Amino acid sequence: MTKKLLLSGNEAVAMAAQYCKVNLGVGYPGTPSSEILDEFSKLGGKAEWAPNEKTALEVAIGGAFAKGRTLATMKHVGVNVAADPLFTIAYSGVPGGLVLISADDPGLASSQNEQDNRRYAISAGVPMFEPASSQECYDFLIKAFELSEKFKTLVLFRMTTRVCHSKTLVVPREDDYPAAVINYEKDAKSNVMIPAYARIAHRKMRNRLAEIAELNEAGEFIVEKMRSSEIGIIATGISYMHAEDAAPEASILKLGLTYPLPLERIRNFASKVKKCYVIEEGDPIVTETCLANGIQVVGKNEIYRYGELNVNRVRRILSGDVTPEAAPVPGKPPQLCVGCPHRKSYEGMKALDLIVAGDIGCYTLGVLPPYEAVHTCVCMGASITTGLGMRHVMAEEQARKVVSVIGDSTFWHTGINGIVEMVYNRPATGHVVIILDNSITAMTGMQEHAGTGFHLDNSPSKKLVIEDVVKAMGVDNVDIIDSTAEYDAYCELLKKRLASNDLSVIIVRRPCILGMVKRKGK
Amino acid sequence: MKKVTNIIFAGLGGQGVLKASDILAEILFTLDYDVKKSEVHGMSQRGGSVSSEIRFGAEVFSPMIPHGETDYLVVLEPTQVEVNISKLREGGILITPADLPLDKLSNPKAANTMFLGALSKHLTEIPEERFIEVIKRFLPEKVHEVNIEAFKLGRG
């Protein structure tokens, strides 16, 4: 009997990575991608948390330069951080195997935006897979490495929240897969993107994409089900599943390798049905590409660009229903846990009526009642720098009320760059940075980071110390305090530092209570 | 069998909603159904609304239950009934704390298994032993007794 498993998409990706003997998995935690590397590590794979996504992708690129097979994982907004190496490696390509997982979050279950990262494949010029189920996560990841190694290109692997976190059946492979042969060879013309070489590489990249488009036309990644000649549906990713439920009578063209698109197959399919719809979540990318190439398809109304699709919404799209949708009954929002060290920290900031430039983490919840303390939150690491911008522009009295609030994992991610900016371009009133150090990457599910003293696989690591680093960088005052145990002293310290023109870092140190449960369980 | 059965477990973070749905999905998986289970893992804080959807049958496509087509809605917390009730189909079955002898539980942490017991009465295609077997496999040994007791109380 064939072995069958019930796996989340993330678990299936991890299992496929282990099957095809990926040499190294690197990422930064971010919902909905976070479980991939933990699972890969549990299966025996070599996996590590990098301080941020750019670092992660670069480490993965290096491994692929050495002809290894490497995997970088991150959430959609993480790809923004990694975009710099992405756009150039798209030109140069890699001699090994390199897959970048982008876990998108349509509907913003746990993100600051719902950007559609299919745009990155088009913009950078790399092929892209979009799995629709855990089985496809498994199969396509292996195919992604094969495509990467055959065409010597990074492959983008675009998942979405429902694909990452839904559990569906997977039949894994049981045969042995050949390991990558690590055999580094210098090839500066391919791997050093000076303008003279990059001009050539750009052309090579376009040629590569043309070849991959041709391969895609052959149909290995296409499922075509001819049923009705009235209605046809072109679908990608999880939208395919909704379409099957919403219109079981319709003909279907399901695409797996979604960039570059197999335009002739699409043209042929569309010609066989009276009305051809494109069902895709997020931006109308396939729709616009079809229309630009003279393929008559019907896309969705603009109201369906927002949020996730589901069976009901696909039914509405197919029936042309653009009446307002019923809003779901709001549930109870998450809150800072009882016993969470951030609670007292915000209580103090609220009492002093501070202007809080916030950041990404559990502590972003300080924007909600009862604290309502956070004024701004843009992206990872932006608290320090946006706070500095306010200090530079505001009148003195107001500038003195500005603090930047950031967590420990986010500090190592990109917050540390803000400290460089602060020391270099010092505001006249100085600045106060509060680092809420709960000694774990809490929001995404308790991952280790450079400052915890543990690697991803829980083995001990060199521990980077925030106070040592910021002192060495030239910050005037560095204090460490526990706002829960020493609340009054914390408030007094805040007042004192805000009154001066110094550059101050206040490290509020108390471990996350859920993190302590995790460590106890070790 | 063509029909797909749709089940939702709902409650608040920390109540064992996901654990109960994990156990049921595993049971259905061992019975060779096509099973899909979907939930949104948000931020890890405690106390927010949580729900998990399970679909099973001969062939399941979308992992998300179409709105208003839920056959069984199991709500572990009274305030969450209102949040989820519109998902239940007409004639679907609602199980809430009011339906269960929760005061008879020797350990309130086993409440989720009691709800699973109450649901199991309706899922006549699944033998009772299969529930017991998977509960034992999914929970640590020291809580087996209290959870099996809770399951049986729920099953009635």
How does this structure look, described?
The complex is a heterodimer of chains A (522) and B (156). With 522 residues, chain A is α/β, with parallel strands linked by helices. Chain A is 40% helix and 18% strand. Chain A folds into 3 domains: 5-217, Thiamin diphosphate (ThDP)-binding fold, Pyr/PP domains (Rossmann fold, 3-Layer(aba) Sandwich), CATH 3.40.50.970; 222-318, Rossmann fold; 342-520, Rossmann fold (3-Layer(aba) Sandwich). Chain A has helices at 9-19, 35-42, 53-65, 76-81, 83-92, 118-125, 134-151, 161-165, 188-191, 195-217, 238-246, 263-271, 285-292, 311-318, 342-351, 382-393, 396-399, 408-424, 466-472, 487-499, 513-520; strands spanning 5-8, 24-27, 47-49, 69-75, 97-104, 128-129, 154-160, 167-170, 222-225, 231-236, 251-255, 257-259, 275-279, 355-357, 374-376, 402-407, 431-437, 477-481, 503-509. A 7-stranded mixed beta sheet of chain A has the order 3-2-4-5-7-6-12, with helices on both faces. In chain A, strands 15-14-16-17-19-18 form a 6-stranded parallel beta sheet, with helices on both faces. Chain A has a 4-stranded mixed beta sheet with strand order 9-11-10-13, with helices on both faces. Chain A is globular. The mean pLDDT of chain A is 97. Chain B is of the alpha/beta class and 156 residues long. Chain B contains 5 helices and 5 strands. Chain B has a 5-stranded mixed beta sheet. In chain B, helix 1 (17-30) crosses helix 3 and helix 3 crosses helix 5. Chain B starts with a strand and ends with a helix. The mean pLDDT of chain B is 93. The chains are: A alpha/beta (522), B alpha/beta (156). The A-B interface holds A 4, 6, 31-32, 109-110, 161-162, 165-169, 238, 241-242, 244-245, 310-312, 329-338, 340, 362, 365, 442-446, 514 and B 12-13, 25-26, 29, 34-49, 51, 60-64, 66-68, 79-80, 82-84, 86.
